[in-house]
Amino acid sequence: MTKRRDFLKQSSLLSFGTLSAYATPALAKELLHFLPHATLFELPPLGYAYDSLEPFIDAQTMQIHHTKHHQAYVTKLNEAVAKDPALHHQSLEQLIRNSNSFPEASRAAIRNHGGGHWNHSFFWTLLQKGTQPGKVTTLAINNTFGSMEQFKVAFEKAALGLFGSGWTWLMKDASGKLTIISTPNQDNPLMDIAPQKGTPIIGIDVWEHAYYLKYQNKRADYVQAFWNVLNWNKVEEFMQK
Ligand code: MN
To answer: Rounded to whole angstroms, how far apart are CA atoms 104 and 107?
Structure first.
């Protein structure tokens, strides 16, 4: 009896250890076998081909960014979920909006990997070539920044001025005011820990992994190219929320 119990204990520990180290989507279902009540996260499909943003964002960058970088945030977030029962029933937004209410040991993972998963999922939906600003967007941007050109200059300045890795956002704050802000690493303005809170309307990833293959150290060229692939239809949708 003791032997059997030891064996069960050992085998479940072994399986759990193996799964938590390699909790890729392929193994997520198997992990759920051990954690039937946990919500595990999956890499969302882009919804378009890796080369559809060429020549502004190259196919290789898109593929590595999606299947390696974004996947790593999902995998590491799932590892954190697997380790901490307090995280088992939470949506991604619940995690990042309330990170301080979760156990301290999980907070860095929620911030870095939960943030990374949210930010990239949002970013992919914002990318499409050949769209134009909608009526609501144009009016709101003109009212806030004076003109579309002035908005772009201010947004580019913020993205270039961000030291190190992070994101630059156009967000709407609680009063409905549009503001440009930058956040370090994988933070975003939805987070309870963000010094300035709001709802993202536009976000640009200015980590080097987002542009280095094509643009190397020329972040300014990448940021300017971004306007050619920004999906203004999505911006219009977020602007109206
Ligand atoms: Mn990225």
So the answer is: 5
